[in-house]
What we know:
mainly alpha; 8 helices
Amino acid sequence: MPDTKTNDQETEVETPVVKKVDDKKPEVESEKNAEDGKTGDKKDGKDDSDKVNSSEQPDDSESNDKSESGAEDCNDNKEETNNKENDEKENEDETFAHMSNQESKRQRVCSLLKALVTPKEISRIVGVSIKTVYNVKNRMTMSKTITRMSGSGGMNKKRTKAFIKALKSKILKDSTKSMRKMAIELEVDNKTIRNAIKYDLRLKSQEYQNTC
């Protein structure tokens, strides 16, 4: 009998201990779950914040690509404008050189015509066509700036009444003007102005006699 009681007491003592242990386990598990939930929420919050920050921050690679492309476009435009300017300058230089060459040839033809060289010979010397020589010759005869050759004799056809009148009006307006300027304005030679002043207007002013 005494043994049974002790066994019963032992069983009765042991059962509440098991209950206490069993009661603590769910509490511990619930606390762990709560902590895991908090950590999970924190992790989710961090992930969401990282996503938001990543969406808000601009893509540096895209902006760099755009800036580089814009710089390349600007450089291409500058190169195109520089090339166009260089081409225009080259064209201007070529046209100027061509015009100066043609003008020098015309002057050469004029000098040879004044030297009474035949058009055929002038064409061979200068390297132009005979038609060009005759065109220059016709312009020389029709041009108002062409004066008679020195030593050819006879009165200069430029010293007409209208010419003398125009020369006299210029002298009255400005008596200090040189013969050279008046010759340029009236499109004649300096000698023509000098002879007109001396023989036609009969002026003996030292200002006009000594001016060239």
